[in-house]
Design brief:
With 616 residues, the protein is an alpha/beta fold. It is 57% helix and 9% strand. It contains 23 helices and 11 strands. The relative contact order is 0.09.
């Protein structure tokens, strides 16, 4: 089981290296949170640091007045074979070994200052320290800032709440074992550590009580009520600790020697002698190590489940971000063409109805074009005054004899010219819709999001092609209008009722009728009405043919050959130009790198946990 604790240590170190050290709201930090650990909690000057040094057997923590621990210290202990040299490694400088524990103390202080500055402020970013020694048990301890009741000079007004909130982010998690350190020379009812532990662990299932400074109690008093669970009961037994005195610290008394003195104290104490086998820092370390082993073993299924879920999420994220791009030009060209096809597929789905947007083209033909045709000023153009004017100008110096054919033609040609405006507006409206669909398709193409340069190139090439399609569409619809003007439908006029100059009389004999005034108002009104009927017939025809021309020249071409010219140009590009098109957003590249590192970490953790679990 020792290898299982070591594995948890390695996963925690790897998480921290990736910036995931718990307290977050995403799947990555939740792995750190799910890993069992032991958090050391206590008020300032409760002897918390001395307990840690006693467990390690080394003097390595910074000392001083006020808040000394200003960042969480994740202390991972690794038991080595007897005779091997002790050394320490920090997570932020992993390849450097410290054999001088005085330098370890200095590095902790320097690394703390690096984040918090030389102030009395705190930071939730942990320091990771691994110690390899034959004198330790496999164990992970998290040293947290000491709880305090008031802010001192140089600290923020919220320091009390800030420390308590930070501590609670660790001890509030169900996978955290709480090591609550309280001094024996103070009433246990006023213990900051016990108060906080009771808030997050009211049943005491996760809390181990540690009583320090037993040797500093007033004469005639003892802590048996606490150690035997009568004053405050926990699920686990209380453990008493006797730390080095300040005089011992000043004399640099060896920690191993201090452990022996502690053992002698309990063995010879009249009050605590019957508890000696369950007292002291060595017993505490073994107790915590054994419990941590059982704690980890019981949670292997839930940890494995979380890891598998996180792997699925990370792989989905990697698929979303896209895999790294190959460096050879052939693979890059293939990638660009695949991305273009992905865009083209979405664009066609918009046109064909698989995605919204294509219906707006139908709206141009069904709403905008008919509305524009209805608004044409034919009433004004075919008014009696204008008809008389046009017919008279067409007659010239020699008035028409029967029907003003030249006047008719001129009126019809002038009226048909009005159709150009709505026809060209339909071309422009469809062009605008197609451009908008290109923009939407680029935005909806997940594969393209990685490559802003390629997005711009595809947009530019698509818009260039759409411009050509619009020019061709405009030429075609203008031809349709001109064709209506170039040859009038003769049968239409042959079927019009003629103005009769004679009317039949009863008895079958014709009777002379009043002569028709070919320059009177009724005559010109009839001409205007006839021209209006013909124009309406042409309008109905164009209403059907213009959409066909627009779709043929613009929509159909966009579906079939939107990127054809772009494909031709791409095929001529060399490696450097292709690489520029696949130049990714730096933020996205960094995101993929981090995602890949996390995915590698989780897969490795899953494999190692599985192997250890099977062996066990």
């Amino acid at each position: 089981m020792e290898s299982l604790i070591g594995l948890v240590n390695r996963i925690q170190r790897a998480c921290t290296a990736l910036g995931d050290y718990g307290g977050g709201d995403n799947a990555f930090s939740s792995l750190w949170d799910a890993l069992p650990s032991v958090a050391v909690v206590g008020g300032q000057s409760s002897g918390k640091s001395s307990v840690l040094e006693s467990i390690v057997g080394r003097d390595f923590l910074p000392r001083g007045s006020g808040i000394v621990t200003r960042r969480p210290l994740v202390l991972q202990l690794h038991k080595t074979d007897d005779g091997q040299q002790e050394y320490a490694e920090f997570g932020h400088i992993p390849r450097r070994r410290f054999t001088d524990f005085g330098m370890v103390r200095k590095e902790i202080a320097d690394e703390t200052d690096r984040i918090t500055g030389k102030t009395k402020q705190i930071s939730p970013v942990p320091i990771h320290l691994s110690i390899y020694s034959p004198n330790v048990v496999n164990l992970t301890l998290i040293d947290l800032p000491g709880l305090t009741k008031v802010a001192v000079e140089g600290q923020s007004e919220t320091i009390v709440e800030d420390i308590e909130n930070m501590v609670q982010t660790y001890v509030g998690k169900p996978n955290c074992i709480i090591l609550a350190v309280s001094p024996a020379n103070q009433d246990i009812a006023t213990s900051d550590a016990i108060k906080l532990a009771r808030e997050v662990d009211p049943t005491g299932e996760r809390t181990f009580g540690v009583l320090t400074k037993l040797d500093l109690m007033d004469k005639g008093t003892n802590a048996l009520d606490v150690l035997e669970g009568r004053a405050y009961r926990l699920q686990h037994p209380w453990v008493g600790i006797v730390n080095r005195s300040q005089a011992d610290i000043n004399k640099n008394v060896d920690m191993i020697y201090a452990r022996r003195k502690e053992h002698e104290y309990f063995a010879t104490s009249p009050e605590y002698g019957h508890l000696a086998s369950k007292m002291g820092s060595e017993y505490l370390a073994k107790l915590l190590s054994k419990h941590l082993e059982q704690f980890i073993k019981a949670r292997i299924p839930s940890i494995t489940s979380l890891i598998n879920k996180s792997i699925d999420e990370l792989e989905s994220e990697m698929d979303h971000l896209g895999r790294p791009i190959a460096v050879d030009s052939g693979a890059q060209l293939y990638t660009i063409l695949e991305l273009c096809r992905a865009f083209d597929k979405i664009f066609k789905e918009h046109l064909d109805g698989g995605r919204p947007g294509g219906d707006r083209i139908y709206g141009v033909f069904d709403n905008q074009l008919p509305a524009a045709l209805r608004k044409l000023p034919f009433d004004r153009y075919l008014s009696v005054q204008n008809v008389r004017k046009v017919v008279s100008e067409a007659d010239g110096y020699q008035p028409h004899l029967i029907a003003p054919e030249q006047g008719y033609r001129r009126l019809i040609e002038g009226a048909l010219n009005y159709f150009r405006g709505p026809a060209e507006a339909s071309v422009d409206a469809v062009h605008f819709v197609l451009k908008e669909l290109v923009r939407k398709s680029i935005g909806e193409c997940q594969e393209l999001k990685r490559f802003p340069s390629l997005q711009s190139a595809i947009a530019a090439a698509s818009n260039e092609s759409l411009e050509k399609f619009r020019d061709e569409g405009r030429k075609t619809i203008v031809r349709l209008v001109d064709m209506e003007s170039s040859y009038l439908t003769v049968d239409f006029f042959r079927k019009l009722p003629q103005e009769m100059e004679h009317t039949p009389q009863k008895g079958g004999k014709p009777e002379a009728a009043p002569a028709v005034d070919r320059y009177g108002e009724n005559h010109f009104r009839r001409i205007g009405s006839n021209v209006s009927s013909y124009v309406n017939m042409v309008s109905d025809t164009l209403r059907n043919t213009l959409p066909k021309a627009v779709v043929y020249c613009q929509v159909k071409e966009a579906k079939q050959s939107l990127l054809n010219f772009f494909y031709t140009q791409i095929g001529k590009k060399e490696g450097k130009a292709l690489a520029e098109l696949l130049d990714e957003d730096p933020a996205l590249m960094e995101r993929r790198i981090q995602c890949a590192k996390r995915l590698e970490l989780y897969k490795k953790a899953r494999d190692e946990i599985d192997s250890v679990a099977w062996v066990r």
